[in-house]
Each structure stands twice: as structure tokens, then as C-alpha cells.
Amino acid sequence: MSIESADAETSEVVHKTLIIRKKWLELAVYFVLLIATALYANDALKLPSYSSSGIGASGFPLLVAMLIGVSLLFLIMVSFLSKANSESDSLVEVSRPAQVLLSMMVMVAVVLTLEWLGLIVGIALLAFLLMKLGGENRYSLLLTLPPLLALSIYAIFVLVLGVYFD
Amino acid sequence: MIDNLLIGLNAFADPMVLVGLIAGAFIGYLIGAIPGLGPSLGIALMIPFTYSMDPLVSIVMLVALFAAAEYGGAISGILLNSPGTAAAVATTWDGYPLTKQGKTGIALNISIISSGIGIFVSTILLFFTAVPLSEYALNFGPSAYFALALLGLSLVSSFSSGSMLKGALAMGLGLALATVGLDSQTGVPRFSYHPDFFEGLPLVPVLLGLFALSEVLFMIEAGASHKVKNQPMSGILEVPFKTFYKMKYLFLRSSLIGYFVGVIPGAGASIGSFISYAVAKRFSKQPELFGNGSYEGIAASETANNASVSGSLSPLLALGIPGSATTAIMIGALMIHGVQPGPLLFTTNPEIPYTVFVSLWLSVPIMVFIGLAGARFWAKVADIPRPAIAAIVASISLIGAYASTSSMFPVYVALTFGVVGYVLRKANIPLAPVILALVLGDMLETNLRRALSISNGDVTTFITNPLSATLLAIAALSFLLPALGLFRKKVKGYRAH
Hints:
heterodimer; A: alpha+beta; 2 domains; three-stranded antiparallel β-sheet; two-stranded antiparallel sheet; B: mainly alpha; two-stranded antiparallel ribbon; about 75% helix; DUF1468 (chain A); DUF1468 domain-containing protein (chain A); transmembrane helix (chain A); membrane (chain A)
């Protein structure tokens, strides 16, 4: 895994790009899924295996766990055995990783505080921060779109569709 | 059949249904024209707006949106060389060269009219095939239904990814998600660590997370977009009728290809447009123009990718089996309104399928008008700053998830699946089989258990029934053939060394 500078935009801002070996990223995902599948299968084993109508609640989940498990084992094997066709094939780029991570955190934070912030302020804040993180630097847009978007969403969902917000 | 068609036509006596059709076509164009968005994301984003609508209005709106978004992808392809959807890639090969030659208007005109023809002809095919198919499907037993659902899943899994193992993994993940909640036959809670999970994972928030929020993260990653130069729209209303008349056989051929490829689960609009493009080139008197601004190239690709919309609706309406991520989302939208697609739909709620047929036909003049009259506007839409689109999509997704039950639980689900979708896409694991398996999981399990219960646990029931045996054999082949192909390639590679 490495971090490189890359000129990502037309503006002169220089952004970092996270470069990960495709193989390691895939293996990491496969191992996380393998652990999740093991936990899933363990829980499935605790379910009743028979019912009055035949196959019980555990039958299908166990079949599914087997399908996922076998696919993962083959994928892990293929990952270890295969060689990348070219240099670019073997890399996964995450441009602007800090912004991506911050965007996830902004979404979580706004959602967790939405009841306290209220719908209009919450959405306006979310839109403003996501636009800023997305690379928008024009204040004319940053200051007009978020409140307009928040008011439109309020008008459509609350006033027209009757969705109730606490 | 004609009587039922009148029922479908009668639905448009309600002006709201017509408003839904026009709104769907307009929003579809808007979503399709923006690079990165597409029919799947568009329908997922629109579902929250339809919660309180009349089922017919919302279904008509979503169908029109599906058709228009499939076309809208061509706009940014022709103008910016950046197709809005995968199905518009072949259109870009000739559309963008025409733009460079100063013929943007002509390229847009041909693509819009071809899309309309594709939808019109393919809907006739849909009308004449979906009804008999649904009547035939009424005879299906649980084992045939299990095999059919498995076939749909396996075709989508093996088509939608470069790797069939990743497709199988994605299918397994979707099926695992479908098992969350109370077991429909015994009432036992499964993988439900909180009462909120008892009804299973809510479909709409999962869709919004996987398709919309993950796309938001990709947009953040891509950063601000470049400003696009305005293109003159000269010639948009000046394409003579004879240009289209000369291509009459191409339209028919491409509609047939698009429709029948669209019927196959997992194949979809992009494969249809590529095949149609290749066939058109082979039959063309001027094959050298293909790739350099051929009118036939645009017409072949656009006719086929729009014809596949009707094709993909055929198994959805007649069998209740979605063949793509977009139709899986459509099935979710129908289920929210209490409509269960499948063979019984044609007898219990004939107004639904027949209104879909009529709305597809009526969407043609509306789409052509909106497309031609608003060409300058669509060109500007393709230029909306990416961060603004990310903010709009994220806001609608989160509030849309909340609106599904007026509680925070679906919002947490959407957020979780947004991150999961982003990671899965980065690891090249396709999302279409996940969503398809989530939608079909319950049907698959119910029919498996029913079939085994009827046969007293005898698994040979799936092989002794000729229909289920055939379907299962095709499902197995869909996984084995790519594996065999890969094996032969490897062997050839070793021999070459």
C-alpha cells in the first residue's frame, strides 16, 4: 500500500491517491467475508433443522453459507495462485482517500444528530459538507444549493408526501 | 387480450397517470443524462417519492423513468464522449465523432427517434410474448419455480462479472441477506439481533445504500468535474424522413435483438446494443463509417438498448423473475405497493401489466418530444457539477430511507450498505446479483422447502420433473461454460509457452 500525490483536478489543488495492490484488497475483503460467513453458519446451526413441514429454518441458510464459503475459498486460492496480467491490473486506486473517509464520517455524524439538528439544517449541512469534500470551491454554489436542496426536500417529503419527522 | 389492453388504456383517463408518465420520462432523461447515474440508481432514488402515490401512477412513472433513463445515457455519450450508462457505450462510438464534425443535433435526433422505435416495436413483442408466457407459467409447481429463480440468479451472476466466482459470491451474499428476519414458514427469528430485523432487511434502504450512497462516495473520489464546452444543436429538427426509412430493416433487426437479449436474465441493454451494433455493421453498405460517425451505428445501438427495456420487463411481469438490477429494483417498488409480479398478475390485477404496455407505447411520443425540444437543456444537465449531484443523491437517499418507515433504522441500514457497496465495487464484486438474490431469496427458499415437503424430502424431485431438470441444467451450464472457457484459455496459454 502506498500513498502518492496526483493532480486530480483542473484546479491547482494536489490530492493524495491511495494505491493498494488489488490482490491484497481482494484478500482482505474475502477474509472479512469468510469470518462473517463462519459467524453466519454458526448462528444457522443453532436454528431448528426440522419442522412439521419438513426442512427447518436452518436448512437454507446452511446451503447459502456453503455457497459463500466455497466461493470464497476458491477466490482466495485463485488470488494466491494468479499473476497479474499487467502492472495497472494489479493496482486499485482510491483517489482523495481522506475526502472519501471524511464523507463517510460526515454522513454518519449528520444521521446521528439529525433528530437534534432538524431536517432542514441537517440536510443543508450534509449537502454543504459533501460538496466541499467533493471539491466544489465556488461559494456562490456552496451557499445557495444546500439551503435550496434542504427546503425542496422538506417541501416534497413533509408537505407533499406527508412524511412525519420528529 | 384486446379487452385487457383497453383496461390499460382506460387507466390514462386518470390525469394523474398521464402526469406520472410525463414526470417519469422527464426525470429519466435527467438521470440518464448525468454521467454516473443510470436507470437502477434513478429508480432506487424515486421509490421514496412513490410511497404515498396510487400504485398505478407510481408504476407508470417508474416504467417511463426506466425507458427514458436508458435513452438519457446517450446524451452525455454523444456530447462528452462519456456515456451515462453502459448501454450507451456503442452509441458513443459514432455519436461523439458526429459531435466533433459539428453534427451534434443530427446525432441526438437519430438516437432519440431510434430509441422511440426500439421501445415501440419491442413493446409489441412484449405484448405478444408476456401474456402466453404467464399463462404457461401458471402450470409451474414449486420445483419448477425454484429452478427458474435459480436459473435467473445464476445467469445474472455469471454474466454480470468478469469472474463467475465473484458472481456466485455476490449471489450468496444476497441470499444470506434475504434470510434475515422471521422465517416465513416457522416464524423462528433468524439472524435478528434486534426486533427491527424481524421483518427482514428493508429493501429500499438496502437499494439506496448499495446503488446511491456507494455512488456518492465514488463521486467524492472523482472530485469536481470539468466545465464542458457548449455544443451547437444545429440540424436537430432537420433529419429527413428518408434517413430513417432507409434504416427500416435495421430498426426491426435491432428491436428483435434488443428485446430477446433483454429477456435473458443478466444479459441486458449493454450486451443487446453491442450485438446489434456488430450485426448492423456486418449488414451495412458502408461499414467503414462505423466508429467514425455512422448514423446506422447510433440507430442500431439505441434501438437495441431501448428495446431491451421491454425485454427485461417480460420475465418480470410474466414470471415474477427480475433479470437485472434495474428490474429487481422495479420488483421491490411493485411489492411496496402490494403488487406481486408473476403469472397470477395477469388474472388478478390485469390493469397493472396492460397499463405497463400502454404506458410504454405512450412514452414514445412523450420521450421523443421531451428529447428533441429539450436538447439544449439536456446538454446543460450533463454539465451539473459532480459535487452538487453527490450532495443531492446523498440527501435524497438518506431522507428517502427515513421516509420508508418514518424511523431511523432504515437510515442506518442505508448508510451501512453504502459503505459495503463501495468496498464491494472496489473489490470488483458485482452488486446486481446481490440485489437480485435479496429480492428472489424468499421465493427460492419457499419453493425449495415446498418442493421437498411435497416429495417427502426426496431431492430427485428437481431432476424427475422435466421442466425443473432442464432449467437446472441451463443454470449449471451458465456457471460451467465460462469455467470451461477459462480452463481452455489457460491450457492454450501453457501450450503457447
